[in-house]
Specification:
The chain is mainly alpha-helical and 321 residues long. The chain has 3 domains: 81 residues; 128 residues, Orthogonal Bundle (hpI Integrase, Chain A); 57 residues, no CATH class. 51% of the residues lie in helices and 3% in strands. The chain has 13 helices and 3 strands; from the N terminus they run αααααααβββαααααα.
Length: 321
């Protein structure tokens, strides 16, 4: 860069352009402005290099020694440096795996009707039996399931956004700063009306601009539910229902007819390798957690997966080859 001030100006221009396209860039803005300050502090002039970026990535405010933290910081710079090349062609773009690969986002699990019924049946048991807490989470999870709202959209709802006369939700200023309306099924209207009545009788959150879904404990009593709180409750319900990790998985299969003693021998060797520190570290870098099983346990697991996904398999026309 020709001057540190110029880099700061480029950062602000980049953020302005991206935000006009609907991107929030809250964490990216923090990182890029911090990077611009770092470049100024070291007195760098000329094109930005990967070395400078790597040095900045290692100097996070918490003094982290975790390469995953450094990799996340470098990842924030990649789109900006690609954009910057149109003005400063000699700008270097850091490799995505400069500090190793980041753990990959888990594959989403699509809950079937039976699982949703089990979840909604478990929520009221959160207790206390005479309180609102169980009904709040039962209604929240049920509404998300039947409307397709994002969790953040559901938690941002205000009383005035939930029109139970017209049967309509108003979702305000969500992705790309747009608003939309979501029509409700009559059964959903009935459930929301039941929840609102019980909540109003408790004397909580009755004003039009008050949150629709509220906390019932401690400092968050009467305030909007927090996303972390919802995730914590959902994780507890998953554990209570004995739901396993629904992300993608890997296993080793042998051709039909292989002798059982050979299967046992192979399984023992694989489990031994998976238990070594080197293999655990290598898998962790790829975002994978080893969970060795016996052949019988793995066969039972595959059976459950097939049963749970039978309808999806049928619709997709998937066949074993």
């Amino acid at each position: 860069m020709s001057a540190p001030q110029s880099l700061r100006a480029r950062v602000e221009r980049y953020l302005t352009e991206r935000r006009r396209l609907g991107f929030g860039l809250r964490s990216a803005a923090y990182a890029l402005r911090g990077f611009a300050r770092h470049v100024q502090s070291i007195g760098h002039h000329g094109p930005l290099t990967v070395g400078i970026m790597a040095e900045w990535a290692r100097r996070d405010s918490h003094g982290s020694s975790d390469p995953h933290t450094w990799a996340r910081r470098i990842k924030q710079l990649r789109p900006f440096t690609r954009w910057l090349q149109q003005f400063e062609p000699l700008t270097e773009v850091p490799e995505e795996a400069l500090f190793g690969r980041l753990p990959q986002r888990q594959a989403p699990h699509i809950y079937n009707d039976g699982e949703i019924v089990d979840l909604l049946a478990a929520a009221p048991a959160l207790g206390p039996s005479s309180g609102l807490r169980g009904m709040i989470f039962e209604t929240l999870f049920g509404m998300i399931a039947c409307t397709g709202l994002r969790i953040s959209e559901a938690l941002a709802l205000r009383n005035e956004d939930v029109d139970l006369v017209r049967g309509m939700l108003t979702i305000r200023q969500t992705k790309f700063a747009k608003s939309r309306q979501v029509p409700l099924h009559h059964s959903t209207i009935h459930s929301l009306r039941r929840y609102r009545s019980a909540r109003d009788l408790s004397g909580e959150s009755t004003e039009g601009n008050a949150p629709f879904f509220i906390g019932t404990r401690g400092r968050r009593r009467g305030l909007a539910l927090g996303e972390r709180q919802v995730h914590r409750v959902f994780a507890g319900l998953r554990k209570r229902l004995d739901w396993r990790n629904r992300s993608s998985w890997y296993g080793v299969l042998a051709p039909a007819g292989v002798a059982k003693d050979i299967i046992v021998l192979l399984n023992g060797a694989i489990v031994k390798v998976l238990g070594t520190p080197e293999m655990k570290e290598a898998l962790n870098r790829e975002g994978t957690e080893p969970q060795p099983t016996t052949p019988e346990q793995f066969a039972a697991f595959i059976g459950r997966e097939l049963a749970q996904n039978a309808e999806l398999i049928k619709l997709a026309g998937a066949k074993a080859e």
